[in-house]
Design a protein that fits this description.
The structure holds two protein chains of two kinds. By secondary structure, chain A is an alpha/beta fold. Helices cover 40% and strands 18% of the residues of chain A. Chain A is built from nine helices and twelve strands. Chain A has an eight-stranded parallel β-barrel, surrounded by four helices. Chain A is globular, with a radius of gyration of 18 Å. In chain A, 51% of the residues are buried. By secondary structure, chain B is mainly alpha-helical. A three-stranded antiparallel β-sheet of chain B has the order 2-3-4, sandwiched between helices. A two-stranded antiparallel sheet of chain B has the order 1-5. In chain B, a hairpin with a 2-residue loop joins strand 3 (192-198) and strand 4 (201-207). The longest helix of chain B is centred in the first third of the chain and has 23 residues, at 37-59. The chains are: A alpha/beta, B mainly alpha.
Amino acid sequence: MPLSHTSCVRPVPTAVGIGLRAPHHDHVMAQRPAVPFFELHSENFFAAGGPNRELLDALRADYPLSLHGVGLSLGAADALDADHLAQLRALVAHVEPGLVSEHVCWGAIDGRHYNDLLPLPYTEEALALMTQRVQQVQEMLGRTILVENVSSYIHFTHSTLREWEFLAELSRRSGCGLLLDVNNVYVNSVNHGFDPLDFLDGVPGERVGEMHLAGFTRKQGLGGELLIDSHNRRVDDAVWDLYVSAVRRFGPKPTLIEWDQDLPDFAVLEDEARIATEHLYARAAVPA
Amino acid sequence: MHAPPSLHELQRAFAASLIEGDAPMLTPWVAARGIDPQARLRIYRNAGYAIHVEALEAVFPAVRALIGEESFDGLATRYTARRGSDGGNLQHFGRDFAAFLGAQPELAGYAWLVDVAQLEWLRQEALLAAEHPVADIEALLRALDEVPAERLHLPLQPHVRVLQAAVPALDLWTWARDPQGDAPDPRGAPQSVLLWRHATQIVMQPVTPDAARFLQALREGRLLAEALGADADPARLPALLQPVFEHALLAASTVHAADTTAPEALS
């Protein structure tokens, strides 16, 4: 299966989009800003009616869209939630988005959901389960998905693979693409003590279908350095540098500015997108 | 050291740490790197509670305003710990928050909060529900003439909700959202409320207790005769249906006689 859906209404362009959140809905509907694409959290648009459905239909008429799930709990030892998956399928059929993505994580066990992106051990058992789950989702949706590396504050000592090895092998076995969250790579490199460039070197660039950028905060008072993937501030300089390295390695990819907490004016997100666009196209002009 | 946990064992232990804050089986398998593994796990625990409390705050702003932020956050945290979320979509978290509030000893003197919380949950349900094509009024009137009430279903739009409250729930909600003048007396006359979605807004209208019972019965899919009740005066039907007609709350495709194998075409 191709990385993007070939019959979709609007493919996501190789440009810098913005993650659209509720406080900016009215602004976007009124102003129709020149944003190359928007990414939406899938679950917020599961409802068959209401204001979000109206927004969705208006957006898809004017913008390429990417659907980004946060609640499927792909890596849970339990079976996937059939109802959740059916709702995702219905949404994808309705929107025909350029990209569909989820996370390499788990969020539910024994019927209880924690609605968070919880870390997996990078073991063969987890890899086999994730591979089966991603294949199940792709078969259900009739298309490939991208899976995103998550930020984490825990590394399990019985992991037998590095995070990037896990992602590369998951992509190889399942055929899925990768959503490379550059901020998460940097956050994890600090939290778990690895060179972020090793991560980039270990990722199959041809499988990267999208990149994410966001801001982090530093957690104080724990006795060691820990970064929190807070999505509440501008992209850090170190992450910009890593993004440049990623574009050099992988070439230009659709890129997204994410901001989920303490949302600023939409203009701030547009300014972050402008900076990312400069990096994206500057690197695109550099011969390989 | 023992054998590493299976994925299921690890996730169960992790889940226990999220709820109870204790993970003796898990911590040996968490790399410290200068930070206590329990402190690392607490980041997830704190974030998890914050996510769920914020979700409840978004759905129950009037309850929060009425009991205060501190009390609300405490109750929301307790609810999260005890009930948890049963789905990956947070929009449905809080389904039984009203009943939970009603069972808390410290709220024994605030029983009226339950109805306000239930009103807020019904608003959330109405916001997320589907919308069907609206019934044709002439077809509906013809059906009322031609099909016996014992065989007629009049299904409402999926976004219609009915609250049969024991307190002035709508007045309390309205005051909580915009506190002008004196607060309503919770011991005041009970209010039943009809809710529906118009465009992107939720509309709430007080209705009589009779109308509320009737409309709730229609919502539950009862036949018209059942909704009216055995001792109901058929002459009251126009009054009971008045808000349904006025606000186009009947769904077209599903107006049908009960004993046909397929919905009866009434247009």
